[in-house]
Specification:
The complex is a heterodimer. By secondary structure, chain A is of the alpha/beta class. Chain A is about 35% helix and about 25% strand. In chain A, α3 packs parallel to α6 (about 155-165) and α4 (about 125-135) crosses α6. Classes of the chains: A alpha/beta, B mainly alpha. The interface of A and B includes residues 87, 101, 118 and 149 of A.
Amino acid sequence: MNLVKTTSTLSAENISVWFGERQVLENVNLVFPANKVTALIGPSGCGKSTFLRTLNRMHELIPGAGLAGSVYLNGEDIYADGMDAVSVRIKVGMVFQKPNPFPTMSIRDNILSGLKLSGRKIENAEELVETSLRRASIWNEVKDRLGDQAISLSGGQQQRLCIARSLAMNPEVLLMDEPCSALDPGSTRRIEETISELSETMAIVIVTHNMQQAQRVSDQTAFFLADENTPGGVVEFGSTEQIFNGPIDPRTNDYVNGHFG
Amino acid sequence: MSNSSIRARQPWRRANISTSIQIVLASVIPLPLVMLLALLAGLDLTMSFITLFVPLQLIVSSFVGYRAFGRRGIGDAILVVLTIFFSTFVLILLLSVLYSVITEGAKAISFQFIGQNNVYVSPTTSLDYGGVGHAILGTLIVVLLTTLAAVPLGVAMAIYLTQSQSKTRNLVRTFTQALSGLPSVVSGLFILSIIEATQMGRSGITGSLALFPLMLPTVARVAEEALRLVPVDLRYAALALGAPNYRAFFQVILPAAKSGLLTALLLGLARVVGETAPLILTMNPSSGTNLNPFDGGMTTLPTYIYNYLASSYQTSQARAWGAALVLLMVVGILFALARILGKSKSKKSKATK
């Protein structure tokens, strides 16, 4: 498979989000350049995951969801008139908090499922399966059992399979919603290595509650915070180095040093 | 890898000998007691067994339970005795039904009984002539036609109830539940009134129409539960990969719900395959084989049983029992077929390498 280095940039401008009458996010402005890993950190319930879901139009699947602002992928507003959610999700892949391989499919079919589900032709299926599994660093563990059911894998393997499934679509941006929260340290380390390798070919946005993980994998970090009964927003956004070692806002300083949250 | 000197044991099952003896005594003592009481009071043995055995068993077991475990032993003992008693009771009821159908039915049943139809058979004709072949075909045709209409529509309703955000869902669900309480004879009367009004004439298809309102809500409700059990994560996973809704449904949600949908089909079949009343109202009986559901009379196994059971001739009653046994076998074969078909498909998806 030909891995073209993408130069796509994803940016969110003035994003505000509602669930019914309740506003949960206000005026988020973030830029996610190609080949960079961006970590979204902040206490639970501050809207990180919700924000992440606006970036590939998964947010609109929730009944009562509302949105203001724009998200640009390579200069095109993904919420513009005539923009198809399906075509956005093909370019912007997503890995969920809980591993969710398709239980009725084999490991191999899980990898190919994205192409089948989006109605595209599959060329060089075997090569695509191997490349995707290799990029998610799970090839060696499953190469002899590609026909096995995906749910026969361990939790950590399932999550890497889900990453491989997203990679088979060759996305320009990969969104990860706490991908390691259910995993043991070994699996977490392997996924972090995978993230570093993937960042050479795509933009990655990762939500994490693990400060060390954010420091290890990300190039830039956004700190989200929601005060009681007010919508959440970005307190500080900058290079990971600056956020963790020289934060400007005292609240960021408190959070990254574990004083609250 | 395994260390041969260590064996798997079940230490949680360890009971000391005195407890075991007590438990054995607790289950045996009530028996002679009941017989003694019955003899002394001159009661009927069976009746006294039914009325006295369980209370005695409860008392003795509670006592033993108390001796072994203290107060919580009483609760455990009562639960165990009642569970065993009631499950045995239900099992005996079911087995006795099965037993009488098999023993009575076996007298009539033969290859000729299954294969031949009922032409030239009078109430006194010997069991060596005639059979239920036409009724087996009639049952299969009528039930198949009903299934062809009710299963796709029932599953479609379940899809609507689980996948859409529409506001009218609750209304539809309420109607479905109300419909599932519909007495079958009312469904028959409804179709009968249509037959009378339109002069369309009775045939196999009118019988299928009368069964349709009975099968539809059963299929819809069970299928709804099956689809609801599929985790929403899977749908999100599919959509996040760029699947349009219909592909996410057909390639991910539907396969994940397959065994539940199969249960919906089986319960739907079970609901209608033994229906008699609506078919008596909406179909003319036929003693010959009729494969055309749009014209002429057609007999099904339940209506055949109904017609012959009312007769006072012994051969007729034997035919009815035989047909009952055949009906049980038809249902068993249909269920087994559905399970085998469901399994072989899932194996195929496993085998792709």
